[in-house]
Amino acid sequence: MSQNRSDATELVPSTSTAAGPILEVRNIVRHYPVTRGMFKRTTTVVKAVDDVSLTLGRGETLGLVGESGCGKSTLARLLMALDRPTSGEVLLDGQNLYDLSRGDLRRMRRRIQIVMQDPYASLNPRMTVGEIVAEPFEIHTEVLDRNKRKAAVRDLLDVVGLNPDHLNRYPHQFSGGQRQRIGIARALALKPEVIICDEPVSALDVSVQAQVINLLANLQKEFDLSYIFISHDLSIVRHVSDRVAVMYLGKIVEHGSENDIYSHSGHPYTQALISAVAAPDVPQHGTRERIVLAGEIPGATSKPSGCAFRTRCWKAEEICAQDVPALVARPGSPHPSACHFAGEVTPLTIHELAQQDKL
49 - beta bridge partners? Predict the structure, then answer.
């Protein structure tokens, strides 16, 4: 990495010393009404995010995992204030984003940025790499003098491991991994404190995934960044996260430290996700036998009563259909888990499901 960066454009770590989490989510809800007919009568509601609370510490990585359609990307938009919640709060350094004026929100967005999932679709093919990385400076003109922007772009490309002399090239002239580095450079331009990584490596080859993950880890140390790392791949989340939150149909069903989640998972959904990880070093209560979930994921407009996971769960009993389990620590599970029977319960195997005609 080049050491000849000018003082005017050099990226510097955050110097904030305030106590408490950098980002806090309090009971955030996002429901989308489904309407029909000429008069747009609401017939049902899609509960995309349903009473989610999270905290993100300074310099910490919080992994957010779950299957496609569980509400992860909707939550990411809410954290960026790109969508308004039905209720709840998102606080950045103690300030509720949804209480800010348009001008204050615009300035606040300098402190929280996002790296998108698809490096092929997230970059404008008609703009050069230099223009893409410099675009935040065009929006936030007070950040950097126009005459210094080209030097800043070159510096940012160098930081993410790209050749600064390639700033006049277009996105199609780069590989997938290089395009994602361009997206990361753009996210770094305004010197944010929080970066939301919305499945940043899911579209990349495995070898390239490791390079991008290592880059993100190095940048976090250098600039004291806080990450929310969204993914459906628990093997990746395990290696990048300090804490992990598991999401299912709009709700957090379990959260805890990386070690607690992977070694002592309490919720059956978490146990099933971990059992699907191919890596042999991922423990699942002393066995790596695959857990097979019965049934399909319920539709967002037809969630089961009580525990939303009960229709696929081998532990389900009558109470699961009646009561929504609270996200609290329980006997057998040292960290919060939204399951009435959290703990180390042997799941049904493929053979046992076949015997019950569930396959």
Answer: 30
In degrees to the nearest 10, what's the CA dihedral of 301, 304, 307, 311?
-120
Domain identity same for 92 and 177? yes
Averaged pLDDT of the chain = 85
This prediction's pTM = 0.85
Please identify every stretch of the chain with a pLDDT value under 50, giving residue numbers as ranges: 1-18, 279-281, 283-287, 348-359
Q: Which two tokens stand for residue 89?
A: 């709060």
Decide: 251 and 324 in contact? Cβ < 8 Å.
no
| Cβ pair 172, 183 in contact under 8 A | no
Cβ–Cβ under 8 Å, residues 64 and 72: yes
Structure tokens at 88: 């709840």
pLDDT digit string (tens) for 37-58?
Answer: 777 787 788 889 999 999 999 9
What is the reported pLDDT for 206? Answer: 86
**214 and 309 both lie in a single domain:** no
**167 and 28, same domain (yes or no):** yes
CA distances from 68 to 32, 65, 214, 300 (A): 18, 9, 25, 12
Q: How far apart (Å, rounded) are the C-alpha atoms in residues 78 and 49?
A: 9
The whole-number pLDDT of residue 352 equals 46
- Could you read off the pLDDT of 335-345 as tens digits, one per residue? 999 999 887 55
The type of residue at 5 is: R
* Cβ(232)–Cβ(172) below 8 Å: no
Q: Which range marks the domain in which residue 220 is found?
A: 23-240
Are residues 141 and 42 located together in one domain of the fold? yes
Query: Could you tell me if 82 and 162 lie in one domain?
Result: yes
**Do residues 233 and 275 share a domain?**
no
Domain boundary residue among 240, 256, 287?
Answer: 240
**Domain for residue 247, yes or no?**
no
Is-contact 245 79, C-beta < 8 A? no
DSSP 107-153: HHGGGEEEE-S-TTTSS-TTS-HHHHHHHHHHHSTTSS-GGGHHHHH
CA distances from 115 to 118, 119, 179, 181 (A): 9, 9, 11, 9
**Dihedral angle, C-alpha 178, 183, 187, 190, nearest 10 °:** 80
Question: Is 1 among the domain residues?
Answer: no
Tally of structural domains, the chain: 2
